[in-house]
Amino acid sequence: MKYIFKKYEFETQELAETRIAALPHTEVDGESYPSHSHTVVKLGNVVQVEGTYDEEGNELTAPVLADMYSVDVLWRASEITVTDEEGNEEIDYPYGWVSKEITVEGNGVHTFAGRNF
Questions:
Q1: pTM of the entire predicted model
Q2: Which of 110, 117, 113 is nearest to 44 (CA)?
Q3: Taking Cα atoms as reference points, which of 32, 62, 67, 21 lies closest to residue 46?
Q4: How far is the C-alpha of 71 from the C-alpha of 46, rounded, in Å?
């Protein structure tokens, strides 16, 4: 089984939630559940500069958070692969994800069970 690890930044949490909610879901007794096999991790506004604290844990300087809302996705390739008329396969990410993809140095603040980004 092939997976694709991608990192994303959205202007707001609400926009990220909208894109996540647009992934395939099914309704059961009025509740919505994902019907896709992708793994989505909401990282939020990650810390860019650590805060400082005294020996008693009191905050001396507040941490600095990123302006953008971060999300990591481990896409299940078989669910986003399309085949054209000639039999060529390509990855077709859901609407609104490609333009939000980012590249980070190393693995950033999160990885999936040791998978490298």
A1: 0.84
A2: 110
A3: 67
A4: 10
Distance, in Å, from the CA atom of 44 to the CA atom of 14, rounded to the nearest integer, reads 11
The answer to whether the Cα torsion of 81, 112, 13, 50 is positive or negative is negative
The residue with tokens 């997976």 is 3
How far is it, in rounded angstroms, from Cα 70 to Cα 90? Answer: 25
CA–CA gap between residue 111 and residue 117 (Å, rounded): 7
- How would you label 47-63 residue by residue, b for 16+ Cβ within 10 Å and e otherwise? eeeeeeeeeeeeeeeee
What is the Cα–Cα distance from 29 to 84, expressed in whole angstroms?
A: 37
Per DSSP, the three-state class of 90 is: strand
CA pair distance 29, 9, nearest whole angstrom: 33
Q: What is the pLDDT of residues 70-89, one digit of tens each?
A: 999 999 999 999 998 999 99
